[in-house]
Structure formats: structure tokens, C-alpha cells
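Exercise: predict the fold of this chain.
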Amino acid sequence: MPVCPNCKYEYIEGIVICPDCNTPLVDVLELNNFGELTEEDWALVYTSFSVIDVEMLKENLESAGISASILSQKDSSFPVPGDLSKVKLFVKKADVSEALEFIQSIKSKSSDSEQDGEK
């Protein structure tokens, strides 16, 4: 049964995103293992100044079955126009090589499509 890792609410099969906090749902068994994960279990695979860029990569990785987490270092007490803060994308250490290959393939596809648009 799917459960929200933030709210801890259970949902019926077929629901994939929590309607309250917009977090991807996880299986109950996976939720029980969340407490066992520590900071050392995660590895940095991507850094950007664009929150949207990192969120899109996270969604793509999760659609490929790779768990991912975002860390934004935006300082809300220092309001500045534009994106001046680093946004980091982490995956479980066991998934690093697969995640890096996946990110590389996505980036090369977007690079190819941008070059095709210029011609």
C-alpha cells in the first residue's frame, strides 16, 4: 500500500503522489526502511543553480526507479533576485553509477535537441 513519507498517510493503489504535500508515495515496506538511512547512505550526483532543472532530473530518476533527494542551499533570510543558491541532487550510494549514466543520457539528449533546433 502506498504511503507518504512526509505525512505518513496511506493511499489506495494507483495514487503515486501525495495530494497534500506533493511528495512521491513509497511502499509501506520502503517507508519502514527510511529510518535506517543516514547521511552517509547518500551521494551527490548533480549540482545546479536551477531548482527546476534539479527537480526535473529527480522526477526522471524516480521514474526510472532510482530514489533521489534534493538539498537546496537557498537562504530565505537573504532575498535576492535570480538563482544564486546551489541545489544538489543526491541518490543512494548503491545507485550512483546508474544515476550518473541516466543523467548523462538525459543531458546528451537535451544537448542534441538544442543543436538540432539551431540548424
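Check your answer against the key: The two ends are 49 Å apart (CA to CA).
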